[in-house]
Amino acid sequence: MELAELKTMYKLPTHIGFIIDGNGRWAKKRNLPRSQGHIKGFNRLEKVYKMVRELGIKYISIYAFSTENWNRPKEEVDGLMKLFRRVIKDFYNKNKYEDTRIEFFGDLNRFEEDIKTGALDIMERTKNNKDFHINICMNYGGREDIVQAVNKLIKQGKTLVTIEDISQNLYSKNCPDPDFIIRTSGECRLSNFMPWQSTYSELYFPKVLWPDFSKKDLIEAIKEYSSRDRRFGAIKE
Question: What is the helix (H) or strand (E) element at residue 171, kind and residue range?
Fold first, then answer.
């Protein structure tokens, strides 16, 4: 089945969150260093971006680096920083992303200055683009996201807050909550990814490792999403 057929036959999500898991295991299976798995995984991002664009899905969020990932070996973290620099450089390709709003979710202050300023510059350059949205979660933690939202409200003088207040102060304030969250590699947990925003997300845990996530895997995921009966706590008559 081609992606064009999928658009006409199945219900599509508006926003997909991808927890891109399995890069290290992909490398280990091939007796390669973990860094090679991360390189392969980052290369996969652009292919998935193109497929999602073709489907007409407007928002994707990529869980690229969690607040806990700093605890990994220094060599692996350093390799990921090199990849982030490559991704930021790639986003400067205006022909490829000229209609796309790019946001970085997470506390950027922990990154070296060139990564931080590059990310902030890209967000500023693309803030008026509306056709498509890519959210890259870097140094992101869902609990930390809620805490920083509450701290913003405290600084605003709020003493009583609403659900809407918190939602409008999260990193994801400019996009709808994810309808569908895909975590590759078969691990069945969210690992601190958007706990506030995912309360009614459909969850899907394919066993494929992220570097191998293909058009076939995306098609199977969309079929699964389309089969779900989303009631949001109500009863359909």
Answer: none
